[in-house]
Write a structure and sequence with these properties.
By secondary structure, the chain is mainly alpha-helical. Helices cover 50% and strands 10% of the residues. Strands 1-3-2 form a three-stranded antiparallel sheet.
Length: 200
């Protein structure tokens, strides 16, 4: 199943919420959007400044609110409080640990190749299939898989759902087998982050 919700369930995907028709005079969706954007913008302000004086926090709140009001009409926004879902937090932790382990192993393999230059090297460009569909899923797959030094994303063919990588060591097989070696494990771990399982 592809990453991201089907259109019929788009409203339940916090990373790609479905567009909803807003009745004239109904400000509730817009207010919720401004609040969500304001929280995200304020979090970015805090991360960039890393100062917690009353004046700094007040200026950050005003700037975040101004940006949120300006950007709110552009479209739906993922609500930041949905990140606190325990299932998503656990899935994020699992994904982070798995990617970190892959990075460590890939760096050790690369160091071994540097110290043992006589080892055979079969680098090249490869094509892998992907189940990612949404912008967020494709971005996450591309970034996370490229953190592993063995493979770097070069290009994508979105209509045909193909990713092109430069590989230090080309995996054997076709696009489906290459997916299992490069981006498949990350996509499986990413799925619960983008689409947490339905409650029992």
């Amino acid at each position: 199943m592809a990453l991201g919700y089907p259109k019929s369930r788009a409203r339940r995907n916090p990373f790609a919420p479905g567009l909803t028709r807003r009745r004239p005079g109904n400000l509730a969706p817009m207010v919720a959007r401004v609040i969500a954007l304001g929280v995200w913008c304020f979090a970015v302000w805090v991360l960039l400044t890393w100062m917690f004086t009353p004046l700094q926090l007040a200026v950050g709140t005003g700037a975040a609110l101004a940006v949120a009001i300006a950007l709110a009409p552009l479209g739906p926004v993922p609500r930041p409080w949905l990140v606190a879902d325990p299932r998503r937090l656990l899935a994020c932790a699992h994904l982070g640990v798995a990617v970190l382990l892959q990075m460590i192993k890939a760096n050790l393999r690369l160091a071994r190749r540097i110290w043992s230059p006589r080892r055979p090297l079969a680098s090249g460009m490869v094509i892998a299939t992907t189940e990612a569909e949404s912008d967020g899923a494709l971005t996450a797959v591309g970034l996370l898989s490229s953190l592993v030094v063995d493979n770097q994303l070069v290009d994508l063919d979105r209509p045909r759902r193909l990713l092109q990588y430069h590989a230090v060591a080309v995996p054997p097989g076709g696009p489906d087998e290459i997916r299992e070696a490069i981006n498949g494990p990350i996509e499986r771990l990413l799925a619960p982050v983008i689409r947490p399982p339905d409650p029992a």
